[in-house]
Design brief:
The protein is mostly helical. It has a single domain (2-191), classed as Tetracycline Repressor, domain 2. Helix content is 78%, strand content 0%. The protein is built from 9 helices and no strands. The longest helix has 27 residues, at 2-28. The protein is elongated, with a radius of gyration of 19 Å. The chain starts with a helix and ends with a helix. This is TetR family transcriptional regulator. GO terms for molecular function: DNA-binding transcription factor activity; transcription cis-regulatory region binding. Residues 34-53 bind DNA.
């Protein structure tokens, strides 16, 4: 009973810190967020932040992981409602690019994340995304929908194009125009895979 109570307390503290971090990073950005912004809203101490995340950078990683998890769920829903595997593949990729229009994702994941944590292509979430893309491509090859390309190489190229499009959109003077242009070009690129 005491062990469960402690586990609940730990989960609650982590959840409060992630919520406070997400709010502060979205509103102020990583660089402008003070430690007090992260702990005061959650009514916790700096010690709790350091204990659970090792500091502000670790909290940013946890916030990005939470956003990635939510984004993945949204993308799975797109695939599940598609009429065909090809449509699901294309629309999942396009939806991923569209996420770059959301202010929270722009600031936290696409602008501050790479600036603080380094190359987003090396993030754990990108490995999972790459594996998913490679699986989708292999299914489309097996179903004779697309040309017999190397699934791994093609997954890297597709993910790289989508990631770079998202980074461009996030930093563009007119993100909506950049998104429209990127998605139109991306659809043409993907169509080259079709038999």
């Amino acid at each position: 009973m005491a062990r469960q109570k402690r586990a609940d307390m730990i989960a609650s503290t982590r959840s409060k810190l992630i919520a406070a971090g997400r709010k502060a990073f979205a509103e102020k950005g990583y660089a402008e967020t003070a430690m007090e912004d992260l702990t005061a809203d959650a009514e916790l101490t700096r010690g709790a932040l350091y204990h659970h995340f090792g500091g502000k950078k670790g909290l940013l990683e946890a916030v990005i992981a939470q956003i990635d998890e939510e984004s993945s769920a949204r993308l799975r829903a797109v695939v599940e409602t598609a009429d065909t595997p090809w449509e699901g593949f294309v629309e999942e990729c396009v939806e991923w690019i569209k996420l770059a229009l959301e202010p929270e994702i722009q600031r936290i994941v696409l602008l501050d994340g790479p600036a603080v944590l380094g190359d987003p292509a090396r993030a754990a979430s990108q490995s999972a995304c790459l594996a998913s893309t490679m699986h989708s491509i292999q299914v489309l090859i097996d179903q004779n929908v697309i040309k017999p390309v190397d699934a791994q190489a093609t997954a890297y190229l597709v993910n790289g194009a989508a990631l770079n499009a998202s980074l461009w959109i996030a930093s563009a003077a007119d993100p909506h125009l950049a998104s429209t242009q990127a998605i139109a070009s991306f659809r043409i690129l993907l169509s080259g895979l079709l038999r």
